[in-house]
Amino acid sequence: EVQKLNQQLEEKNGEIQQMINQPPYEKEREILRLQKTLAEREKAQATSDVLCRSLTDETHQLQRKLASTAEMCQHLAKCLEEKQRKEKGNADDQISTERSHQVFLQLLCILDNETSLQSLICNLQEENRMLKQKVAHV
């Protein structure tokens, strides 16, 4: 890794020496090209930031909807459980409880998937930050 970085450093030093030895108009042309590249990258980064914010907002909204849906499912499962208790007695009560627990576990799995999406967004934001640092360094 160190050798690779040293080699890259030598290449960059070579590029710098070439630029120093270039006539002034070529230097200005190279500066303009680099400024244009930087502007394009900044624009791409801004777009990426907007998309990340949008995805984060959508993730939060979906998590809220999922939580309310899970809450509603729990309520409905309890109502169903009470109704079945009244109709069939204690023997069937255990089966109803198991069904409601299965529904709840499925909803928890969905919630975990949403959390994974949020983690992915955070990773992408960190990668964008690192790329910005590399661009600034260059």
UniProtKB/TrEMBL annotation:
Keyword Acetylation: no
GO biological process: cellular response to lipopolysaccharide; positive regulation of canonical NF-kappaB signal transduction; regulation of transcription by RNA polymerase II; toll-like receptor 2 signaling pathway; toll-like receptor 3 signaling pathway
Keyword Thylakoid among UniProt keywords: no
Keyword terms: Coiled coil
GO cellular component: cytoplasm
PANTHER family in the cross-refs: TNFAIP3-INTERACTING PROTEIN 2 (PTHR31882:SF6), TNFAIP3-INTERACTING PROTEIN COILED COIL FAMILY MEMBER (PTHR31882)
Protein name per UniProt: TNIP2 protein
Organism annotation: Loxia curvirostra
Gene assigned in the entry: Tnip2
